[in-house]
């Protein structure tokens, strides 16, 4: 057995113990994790300081350095998140369908954990704890493979969490970190079918696509967001401008940010008059199709073909004029990633058609795409936003980390 | 574009039309299919006769010839199945969760089709119609790739169904058959990510494993069944013998048939006394571990290692003695395929432990594994039995062929 296979086997064995652990035990473990991360935060900060120093030496970009950085305040936020997960209802063990069949068999469908969840993510030490907490509460053991730049921070976090698990009477192997951050080991993890039930990549589009392409174990794609706002000719243009500004600029790096605005030809001039002063505040770069360019003039650059599929994650916005709802829907279904899409309109029938015909995880009428989020949707927390249709779609909370098992009570029935 | 890509694009385009079709329209199409298959059954039987002739010439085994064969009676059964699917409730469009958030956003989770479902199956012409009917009712278009031995039967069935769809006002491309039954085209279908949302292989373990290994599109594994019956020392041995006989012999070729019996050491002699006369009726071949061999003597052959993972699909049964529940559960979790597992016991606590600790789609106390079936579970019909944990587990009915979409009604909310 390779070291990773041993780790997989240990995670699988622990998963059978964790699957039978009650809610109280799991909540005790979460509280123990919150406590140890608070009490020993100095150790975690020291490990993080070493990561940061190495990253600076290696010339890491400021935005990435920021994501790698832990502070006392950020640790407090992470700990708060762990306690919040503890406070959420436990989905495991609920029987969501039970009936007595004509032959007397009593058949129930019970929520059970998925088993072992592998998570591949980038250099964000907060994900190490967030993901472990969600997996633990939903009865799943996890194998965490974070970015190599965060390895010292992640090792310390995993060490502290494993100690807390053991103190709470659960196997430390409920949470384990892949120690070797080489690409070969990541690839091995993607093919660890014998032990890994589901693989969830968290990170940028490049990471997600690489994992989907390579993985042999079942993957849940998350967080690819090429999101559109469609401004209809019957839109409230002030509302449209505010929503577009929010969708593009409130946090451009996240997956539910808008990347492209589609504007009805007849509304374009009036809309740009309202929207440009807002977009100017953040210096948003516009990349426009020829028709939009005629109106926007030097305020915009000509869009290239690749702009219609780009997830900028930045203050850049693709702009395209369309002839109406039908063209907008077709364009979105072709170029969107099935994440979040919005129409701005006062017209009831167009709103309904957009909701029906756009093929995405979340479809909005007169609201910002930025709301696609587990917290905003009332799920309490999320491990990611699924952009696939199988298993789960949209924000994935605890419920989405479960499977089911049919339990059947008989009295000697044969068929 | 290759012919298959064109077919995929057509199926995708049709899927947007079908997703918006109401229940009445879909039921009309199903009734039109039932009608045309009845009225033009002679054509279907003729095509089937050609397939059968070619198969006989090629030396096909009798069991496979039987599965390839259509008769007037079988067609009547298939047509009956189509009408039954029409009578089932439509899962599409139901909103299974809706709430108004504190900011006034109204967020609903609506059932939507998966999109385009590809189905790869063996030389069973009935699957062509069964699968198409289930996909149609659940709003999914399907691309069917049946075994090459059934190609003439399948072509005729697809032609008739497409004519019925068009007559009912739906695109014929809601149902399409892969015309070229080469292995290369099957492989191409497994990588048609741009158009296929889900791939469901239906057939023997060899087919399933090949598809899971090769496919780039998301796969739902179905129908691998290495199922066990565990006879506890506190079992009602008469009940145990009857259940084992039923689980092994009522239809050995299906995936919910038992392949292995685990017998508590202390119950073994008494149990075999009850069970052997039943198994003898069908001449069941026993392959036993050394401990069981001591009791069974020449009635059994020595089991090889490979017997513990074998899906015989035949009148063959692996037999192993165990020291108790714990060993039985560990053995099942190691060698089972996560399909259907049964314990025979009078002991309440052991029954509960078995239900909790065995990791399978369906776990039985004192009943035959043969009940794992969409009809028996009250789902009305099934497209297969999922042995994976992602998306769906156990019998997959219409509900399991859906995904969800969040629809959000706003009034200008920004975040």
Key attributes of the depicted protein:
homodimer; 415 residues; 7-stranded parallel β-sheet; 16 strands; 43% helix; 21% strand
Folded structure, characterized:
The structure is a homodimer of 415-residue chains. In chain A, helix 3 (41-57) packs antiparallel against helix 7 and helix 10 packs parallel to helix 11. In chain A, strand 1 and strand 2 (106-113) form a beta hairpin. Chain A has 14 helices and 16 strands. By secondary structure, chain A is of the alpha/beta class. Chain A has helices spanning 3-19, 23-39, 41-57, 62-68, 72-87, 125-137, 151-167, 183-190, 205-214, 237-249, 268-281, 290-296, 325-335, 348-357; strands at residues 95-100, 106-113, 116-121, 141-145, 175-177, 198-202, 227-231, 258-264, 285-288, 300-302, 316-322, 340-344, 362-367, 384-386, 394-396, 402-413. Helices cover 43% and strands 21% of the residues of chain A. In chain A, the strands form four sheets. Chain A has a seven-stranded parallel β-sheet with strand order 10-9-11-8-7-12-13. In chain A, strands 5-4-3-6 form a four-stranded parallel β-sheet, with helices on both faces. Chains A and B meet through strand 2, helix 10, helix 14, strand 13 and strand 16 of A and helix 1, helix 10, helix 14, strand 13 and strand 16 of B. Strand 13 of chain A pairs parallel with strand 16 of chain B.
Structure summarized in a few sentences:
The structure is a homodimer of 415-residue chains. The first copy, chain A, has 415 residues and is α/β, with parallel strands linked by helices.
